[in-house]
Amino acid sequence: MARARDLRARGDPVSGLLPLSLSAVAVLAAAAAWLARDRRRLARRLRDEQAERAGQRDALARAALTRERARIAHELHDVVAHGVSMMTLGVGAGRMIMDKDPVRARETLWAAEESGRQALTELQRALGLLRAEGAEGGARTRAPQPRLADLADLLARVRTEGLSVDVVEDGRPVEIGPALELSAYRIVQEALGNTLRHTGARSACVTLRWRPGFLDLLVRDDGRAGPGAGTGTADTAGPALVGIRERVTLFGGTLETVSLEEGGSELRARLPTVDARATYPPWEAVSPPR
């Protein structure tokens, strides 16, 4: 009895700890609630930033696509202008010699008619490309557009940049329209530029493979796989391959970028050389010999 009275007089230590424990629990509960709110806030911010980055990537992809379409349309404009000029000159010449040489006049007018048809076709393609909004302005040079005959100069410039490159022409070349020839040149140019910028290749080979109804453009290198490498249409490629894809699509062709077993990669662009679309053999049947 005396000891109990003594404990009550000095205070029970266990009962003294109870308020402190309750206070600690309350603090921990408040801290846990604050951390949970902060975690939810950070998660929302992360989702918002991810959505913003995705939107920026889409905007950059659309801008690159618009620039490429505008550039191709500008080039086609030069081709159309040339065709209309030839048509006008042919009609004028035919009119002047109609009475003196009817046979020659008919041939001249026929050539003018063909130029008109070709110019109309290329104009329709250009208008189709301009479905994208806007284009960057600025002064543009009016130099003649390159053709496949200018590939030698292009390869010489590429060699000065440190890439050893050869060209192989397989099959019998046929006459193709100036717009298709320009696109073929640009495809080779952009493919080699992509090789220089992204693959670290030391050598490359350009093959022009002529077959009835289509032209294959193959650009092979011995570097590491560049952007978009892998069987497919290079949807994840950089700006260079975006331009190539647009040019190929414009003429109803196909595009592949593949990694080679022996190392390196190969870009394969197939362009129809006739208006009537045919059933083409698979790539494996027309690839250049290993």
Molecular structure report:
- With 290 residues, the protein is an alpha+beta fold.
- It has two domains: 65-129; 148-285, 2-Layer Sandwich (Heat Shock Protein 90), CATH 3.30.565.10.
- It contains six helices and five strands.
- The protein has helices spanning 2-10, 13-97, 102-129, 151-160, 178-198, 239-250, and strands at 164-170, 203-211, 214-221, 254-259, 265-272.
- A five-stranded mixed beta sheet has the order 1-2-3-5-4, covered by helices on one side.
- A hairpin with a 2-residue loop joins β2 and β3 (214-221).
- α2 (13-97) packs antiparallel against α5 and α2 (13-97) packs across α6 (239-250).
- The protein is elongated and about 125 Å long.
- The chain starts with a helix and ends in an 18-residue tail after the last strand.
Short descriptors:
alpha+beta, 6 helices, 290 residues, disordered C terminus, single chain, elongated, five-stranded mixed β-sheet, Heat Shock Protein 90
